[in-house]
Amino acid sequence: MIRIAAVGDIHLGEDCRGLLRPAFDTLRDSADVLLLAGDLTRHGTVPEAEIVAAEVAGLPVPVVAVLGNHDYHSDQEAEVTAVLADAGVTVLEGDGTTLDIRDTRVGIAGTKGFCGGYEGRSAGEFGEPLMKEFVRYTRRCASSLRGTLEELAADGCAVRIALTHFSPVPDTLAGEPPEIYPFLGSYLLAEAVDEGGADLAVHGHAHLGVEHGMTAGGVRVRNVAQPVIDRAFAVYHLEVPLASPEPVASLARHQ
Amino acid sequence: MTPGGTAEHGYRIARLRERLARDDIAELGIRIEERGGAFLLSGTVPTAAHRDHILRIAQEELGDTVVVRSDLMVASASAPDRPEELP
Hints:
The structure holds two protein chains of two kinds.
Chain A: E1 2-7, H1 21-24, H2 27-30, E2 33-37, H3 46-56, E3 63-66, H4 77-86, E4 90-91, E5 95-101, E6 104-111, E7 117-118, E8 121-122, H5 129-154, E9 159-164, H6 187-196, E10 200-203, E11 212-214, E12 220-223, H7 226-229, E13 234-238, H8 247-254
Parallel strand pairs in A: 1-2, 2-3, 3-4, 6-9, 9-10, 10-12
Antiparallel strand pairs in A: 1-13, 5-6, 7-8, 11-12
Chain B: H1 3-22, E1 31-35, E2 38-45, H2 48-62, E3 68-74, E4 84-86
Parallel strand pairs in B: 2-3
Antiparallel strand pairs in B: 1-2
């Protein structure tokens, strides 16, 4: 069993130093890894990233993160990433990382992801250059997620987790105005999770949504936005699958 | 209330949302609705100071003629008391 702690949307401003650290210090007893699902800062500035870094620096568990849209707001996502990396955080964007936890190889594939909406109600790659690029950007994020999940399987990971900021499914958006769903995530991310194969998908972004959802392919989805989980983090005890995973991917290929 | 009044309230809510996103507070995650002739703010924010800042801005933008009500909560920064088992 793998113990996964996760939180997103902590939105730490410069006045938030030390807010979550007391809770994070308990991770030694409760989790094997801490996932951060983006929107770690309020405006994506270096001083805010330093606050986040101080919250997680030197924790007794590995910390793996993706950034969120707030972390991109000041066009300093590279600097924010560097500050977090200096504090020991593995920041993913279109790539993955593996951890060996009690003889189980755990793979985490991460991308911020982007929006566009869900099946039958989504933006199309058509028309103005801006509109096409909007959809293509999401498509690139999803494609990297699928590719990374496949690589993690090839690398012998018995457990795979997809970490995004934007939501792969509409289930976890319940409570948000339906009109803004297209700005909260994209079915392309769920399709990538189902085709690439994963045991759990973790995201943030939807503050008014709910914690639980599932992809069409049966992968459990958890919205860990802090306003949703109303705790410093959530912990999931994930059983290690007995057989080699990737049932959905092989199903899709054989159809 | 006249139809014009309702439309104006809609624009004022939109302006408040834009200001909350643009200002130092960078808040995009709360709900703002017209409810029973008042404006209602709801949702969950990281700190009490953040909540008070939002309410100050909302009062400036909307509070001159209409009551602003708050049901904003502050998220818990405590560790969870139990995990979720995912068999």
